């Protein structure tokens, strides 16, 4: 049996989300967006190279990650100038300046989560062969490389259309978007018909870009507290933000339920600087007048819901109420 028809050890076409892109306008669009970025490239889910081939012509260092061992081997033979890693995209270091991928649709959310959690300070150095095994050197997949830290700046992803819209905040903000907003910008660039993939998936795709802000709207040291505040607002009860935030206590704001750590921030929360004039942690619900003033200052109506807020409004609310 030829390698073209062999089933991967990691699963068949369906399990691996192998819907290969052949929609020329989308390939051109992704390439155009990549041209607007700098530095080394990391492609997740390279498959048969629909994007890898044109990316390899940009003259930038390119690492292509593909879990299917047959496809990875074939791509490495076809494109000797590309560093092909037969690896799990959920475990490789995200250490190139620009991440690109027509990603398997079932992995969209974990890939996005990882990108947002690991979007640390940019690094100019490209991953070295010492750090990660390459297909050419014959290395096999190894353990999680995240310990090294990640430093991507731009991500251009082809994901399900609805996910792309949601992440870009079309039709209302989401918890994930609000959590990421002070550090990342999302944009939607176009819709890809399902017929643009082979085999055809059940839904259309969408091109989503994520840019790590050069000037974050909040310092990294506030990320934990900010995230706890946003989570509390999204999950709190009430008919509008005035009511919801009035019921959110300082204990919730302080991040007792938060899980993620800001890029480069200390693990130990006791080392975070206290805001001047901050109320003691664990204090009870907020004064309604204080909440209303903060909402008014941020241009938010008392009946507005968390999904209605823009990034700058979340930041302003957090700064006023924290
Ligand atoms: C939607 S296809 C895209 C292929 C190619 N980039 C294209 O546009 O035609 C996704 C690719 O990701 C690969 N893949 C699936 N799970 C993976 C994982 N965990 N890590 C890396 N690649 C994976 C699949 O084998 C498949 O080749």
What is the gist of this entry?
The chain is 30% helix and 14% strand. With 322 residues, it is α/β, with parallel strands linked by helices.
Description:
- This is Ribosomal RNA adenine methylase transferase N-terminal domain-containing protein.
- InterPro entries: KsgA/Erm, rRNA_Ade_Mease_Trfase_CS, rRNA_Ade_methylase_Trfase_N, SAM-dependent_MTases_sf.
- Helices cover 30% and strands 14% of the residues.
- The N and C termini lie far apart (63 Å).
- Helix 3 (69-78) links the parallel strand 3 (62-65) and strand 4.
- It has helices at 24-35, 52-56, 69-78, 108-117, 161-167, 175-180, 223-235, 241-247, 250-253, 288-297, 311-321, and strands spanning 20-21, 41-44, 62-65, 83-85, 98-102, 154-160, 184-192, 197-198, 205-212.
- It has 322 residues and is α/β, with parallel strands linked by helices.
- Mean pLDDT is 81; it is low at 120-149 and 254-283.
- The site of S-adenosylmethionine (SAM) has 22 residues, from strand 1.
């Amino acid at each position: 049996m030829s390698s073209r028809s062999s089933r991967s050890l990691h699963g068949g076409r369906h399990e691996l989300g192998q819907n290969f892109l052949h929609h020329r306008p989308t390939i051109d669009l992704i390439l155009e967006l990549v041209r607007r970025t700098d530095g080394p490239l990391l492609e997740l889910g390279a498959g048969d190279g629909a994007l890898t081939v044109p990316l390899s012509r940009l003259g930038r260092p390119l690492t292509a990650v593909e879990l299917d061992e047959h496809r990875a081997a074939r791509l490495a033979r076809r494109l000797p100038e590309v560093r092909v890693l037969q690896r799990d995209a959920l475990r490789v270091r995200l250490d190139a300046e620009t991440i690109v991928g027509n990603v398997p649709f079932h992995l969209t959310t974990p890939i996005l989560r990882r990108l947002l959690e690991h979007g640390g300070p940019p690094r100019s150095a490209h991953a070295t062969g010492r750090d990660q095994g390459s297909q050419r050197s014959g290395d096999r997949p190894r353990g999680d490389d995240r310990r090294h830290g990640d430093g991507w700046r731009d991500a251009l992803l082809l994901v399900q259309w609805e996910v792309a819209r949601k992440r870009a905040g079309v039709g209302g903000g989401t918890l994930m978007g609000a959590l990421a907003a002070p550090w990342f910008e999302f944009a939607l660039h176009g819709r890809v018909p399902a017929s643009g993939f082979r085999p055809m998936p059940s839904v259309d795709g969408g091109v989503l870009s994520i840019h790590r802000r050069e000037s974050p709207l909040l310092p990294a040291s506030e990320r934990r507290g900010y995230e706890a505040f946003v989570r509390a607002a999204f999950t709190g009860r009430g008919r509008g933000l005035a009511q919801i935030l009035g019921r959110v206590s300082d204990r919730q704001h302080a991040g007792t339920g938060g899980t993620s750590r800001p890029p480069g921030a200390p693990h130990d929360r006791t080392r975070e600087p206290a805001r001047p004039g901050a109320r003691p942690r664990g204090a009870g619900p907020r004064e309604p007048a204080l909440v209303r003033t903060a909402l008014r200052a941020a241009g938010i109506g008392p009946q507005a819901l968390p999904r209605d807020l823009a990034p700058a409004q979340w930041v302003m609310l957090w700064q006023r109420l924290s």
